[in-house]
Specification:
It is a single chain. By secondary structure, the protein is mainly α. The protein has 5 helices and no strands.
Protein backbone atom coordinates (compact mmCIF):
# COMPACT_ATOMS: atom_id res chain seq x y z
CA UNK A 1 0.00 0.00 0.00
CA UNK A 2 2.83 2.41 0.86
CA UNK A 3 4.52 1.77 -2.49
CA UNK A 4 1.30 2.44 -4.38
CA UNK A 5 0.78 5.68 -2.44
CA UNK A 6 4.34 6.82 -3.17
CA UNK A 7 3.88 6.11 -6.88
CA UNK A 8 0.55 7.96 -7.12
CA UNK A 9 1.93 10.90 -5.13
CA UNK A 10 5.01 10.96 -7.39
CA UNK A 11 2.80 11.02 -10.47
CA UNK A 12 0.83 13.89 -8.92
CA UNK A 13 4.09 15.82 -8.33
CA UNK A 14 5.10 15.32 -11.99
CA UNK A 15 1.59 16.43 -13.02
CA UNK A 16 2.06 19.66 -11.06
CA UNK A 17 5.16 20.41 -13.12
CA UNK A 18 3.36 19.62 -16.37
CA UNK A 19 0.56 22.01 -15.37
CA UNK A 20 3.07 24.76 -14.56
CA UNK A 21 4.76 24.23 -17.92
CA UNK A 22 1.37 24.33 -19.71
CA UNK A 23 0.39 27.56 -17.94
CA UNK A 24 3.77 29.11 -18.76
CA UNK A 25 3.36 28.02 -22.39
CA UNK A 26 -0.10 29.57 -22.53
CA UNK A 27 1.15 32.87 -21.16
CA UNK A 28 4.10 32.95 -23.56
CA UNK A 29 1.93 32.02 -26.57
CA UNK A 30 -0.62 34.72 -25.77
CA UNK A 31 1.96 37.44 -25.06
CA UNK A 32 3.95 36.63 -28.22
CA UNK A 33 0.75 36.70 -30.27
CA UNK A 34 -0.25 40.07 -28.79
CA UNK A 35 3.19 41.54 -29.49
CA UNK A 36 3.24 40.18 -33.07
CA UNK A 37 -0.26 41.46 -33.78
CA UNK A 38 0.03 44.88 -32.22
CA UNK A 39 3.61 45.80 -33.09
CA UNK A 40 4.46 43.83 -36.23
CA UNK A 41 1.00 43.38 -37.77
CA UNK A 42 1.63 39.62 -38.03
CA UNK A 43 -0.10 36.58 -36.61
CA UNK A 44 0.66 32.90 -36.12
CA UNK A 45 -2.24 30.92 -37.54
CA UNK A 46 -1.66 27.99 -35.21
CA UNK A 47 -1.79 30.05 -32.05
CA UNK A 48 -5.42 29.21 -31.31
CA UNK A 49 -4.74 25.48 -31.70
CA UNK A 50 -1.56 25.74 -29.61
CA UNK A 51 -3.45 27.52 -26.81
CA UNK A 52 -6.22 24.93 -27.02
CA UNK A 53 -3.75 22.07 -26.67
CA UNK A 54 -1.98 23.73 -23.75
CA UNK A 55 -5.29 24.48 -22.07
CA UNK A 56 -6.46 20.87 -22.32
CA UNK A 57 -3.15 19.63 -20.90
CA UNK A 58 -3.45 22.13 -18.06
CA UNK A 59 -7.08 21.23 -17.32
CA UNK A 60 -6.91 17.43 -17.49
CA UNK A 61 -3.44 16.94 -16.02
CA UNK A 62 -4.44 19.49 -13.36
CA UNK A 63 -7.07 17.00 -12.17
CA UNK A 64 -4.30 14.63 -11.03
CA UNK A 65 -2.78 16.67 -8.17
CA UNK A 66 -6.25 17.90 -7.19
CA UNK A 67 -7.58 14.36 -6.94
CA UNK A 68 -4.46 13.14 -5.14
CA UNK A 69 -4.80 15.80 -2.43
CA UNK A 70 -8.62 15.72 -2.18
CA UNK A 71 -8.82 19.15 -3.80
CA UNK A 72 -11.78 18.45 -6.04
CA UNK A 73 -15.18 19.71 -4.98
CA UNK A 74 -16.91 17.21 -2.72
CA UNK A 75 -19.89 17.07 -0.42
CA UNK A 76 -17.86 17.96 2.68
CA UNK A 77 -20.75 19.92 4.16
CA UNK A 78 -22.72 16.66 4.25
CA UNK A 79 -19.90 14.29 5.10
CA UNK A 80 -18.81 16.28 8.17
CA UNK A 81 -22.30 15.98 9.65
CA UNK A 82 -22.77 12.26 8.97
CA UNK A 83 -21.07 9.66 11.15
CA UNK A 84 -20.96 5.90 11.53
CA UNK A 85 -22.16 3.46 8.87
CA UNK A 86 -23.88 6.14 6.80
CA UNK A 87 -20.59 8.03 6.47
CA UNK A 88 -18.94 4.86 5.16
CA UNK A 89 -21.76 4.33 2.67
CA UNK A 90 -21.40 7.90 1.39
CA UNK A 91 -17.62 7.43 1.17
CA UNK A 92 -17.97 4.36 -1.02
CA UNK A 93 -20.65 6.03 -3.19
CA UNK A 94 -18.27 8.97 -3.69
CA UNK A 95 -15.43 6.62 -4.65
CA UNK A 96 -17.71 4.62 -6.95
CA UNK A 97 -18.62 7.79 -8.84
CA UNK A 98 -14.94 8.79 -9.01
CA UNK A 99 -14.02 5.37 -10.39
CA UNK A 100 -16.75 5.65 -13.02
CA UNK A 101 -15.46 9.09 -14.01
CA UNK A 102 -11.93 7.74 -14.53
CA UNK A 103 -13.17 4.73 -16.50
CA UNK A 104 -15.43 6.89 -18.69
CA UNK A 105 -12.49 9.19 -19.50
CA UNK A 106 -10.44 6.18 -20.65
CA UNK A 107 -13.35 4.76 -22.67
CA UNK A 108 -13.96 8.16 -24.29
CA UNK A 109 -10.33 8.30 -25.41
CA UNK A 110 -10.51 4.77 -26.82
CA UNK A 111 -13.66 5.57 -28.82
CA UNK A 112 -12.30 8.91 -30.08
CA UNK A 113 -8.88 7.56 -30.99
CA UNK A 114 -9.76 6.18 -34.48
CA UNK A 115 -11.12 9.59 -35.48
CA UNK A 116 -8.52 11.88 -33.94
CA UNK A 117 -5.43 9.82 -34.76
CA UNK A 118 -5.92 10.19 -38.49
CA UNK A 119 -6.38 13.98 -38.49
CA UNK A 120 -3.61 16.54 -38.13
CA UNK A 121 -3.57 20.27 -37.43
CA UNK A 122 -3.45 22.14 -40.71
CA UNK A 123 -2.01 25.33 -39.21
CA UNK A 124 1.22 23.73 -37.96
CA UNK A 125 4.09 23.13 -40.38
CA UNK A 126 4.87 19.89 -38.54
CA UNK A 127 2.20 17.19 -38.77
CA UNK A 128 0.75 16.99 -35.25
CA UNK A 129 -2.18 14.61 -34.81
CA UNK A 130 -5.31 15.69 -32.95
CA UNK A 131 -4.55 12.90 -30.50
CA UNK A 132 -2.15 15.24 -28.68
CA UNK A 133 -5.07 17.11 -27.15
CA UNK A 134 -6.87 13.94 -26.02
CA UNK A 135 -3.91 12.18 -24.37
CA UNK A 136 -4.19 14.19 -21.12
CA UNK A 137 -7.78 12.98 -20.72
CA UNK A 138 -6.53 9.40 -20.99
CA UNK A 139 -3.72 10.01 -18.50
CA UNK A 140 -6.06 11.69 -16.00
CA UNK A 141 -8.66 8.95 -16.40
CA UNK A 142 -6.11 6.21 -15.74
CA UNK A 143 -4.78 8.10 -12.74
CA UNK A 144 -8.21 8.75 -11.23
CA UNK A 145 -9.14 5.08 -11.68
CA UNK A 146 -5.94 3.79 -10.07
CA UNK A 147 -6.02 6.33 -7.23
CA UNK A 148 -9.68 5.53 -6.51
CA UNK A 149 -8.98 1.80 -6.34
CA UNK A 150 -6.06 2.59 -3.99
CA UNK A 151 -8.36 4.66 -1.76
CA UNK A 152 -11.08 2.00 -1.72
CA UNK A 153 -8.59 -0.75 -0.84
CA UNK A 154 -7.06 1.42 1.87
CA UNK A 155 -10.48 2.19 3.37
CA UNK A 156 -11.47 -1.49 3.34
CA UNK A 157 -8.20 -2.38 5.08
CA UNK A 158 -8.88 0.30 7.72
CA UNK A 159 -12.43 -0.98 8.25
CA UNK A 160 -11.23 -4.58 8.62
CA UNK A 161 -8.53 -3.52 11.08
CA UNK A 162 -5.58 -4.45 8.86
CA UNK A 163 -4.43 -0.82 8.66
CA UNK A 164 -4.59 1.84 11.37
CA UNK A 165 -7.01 4.73 10.82
CA UNK A 166 -4.76 7.73 10.18
CA UNK A 167 -7.56 10.29 9.83
CA UNK A 168 -7.59 13.11 12.34
CA UNK A 169 -10.59 13.59 14.59
CA UNK A 170 -13.39 15.36 12.73
CA UNK A 171 -11.70 14.97 9.34
CA UNK A 172 -14.07 14.33 6.48
CA UNK A 173 -13.89 11.10 4.55
Amino acid sequence: MKTCKKITEGVAKVAEWIVMIAITGLVIAIVVELVRRNFFNQSFAGNIQLCGILFLWMAFIGLIPLYCHNGLMRLDFLLTRVHGPMAEVLYFINKGVSLMLGVVMVIAFIYQYPFVSTRTYQTFSVKIPYTVQYVPMLIAGIYISIKTVEQIVERVLVLTGRLPDTRKAGEAL
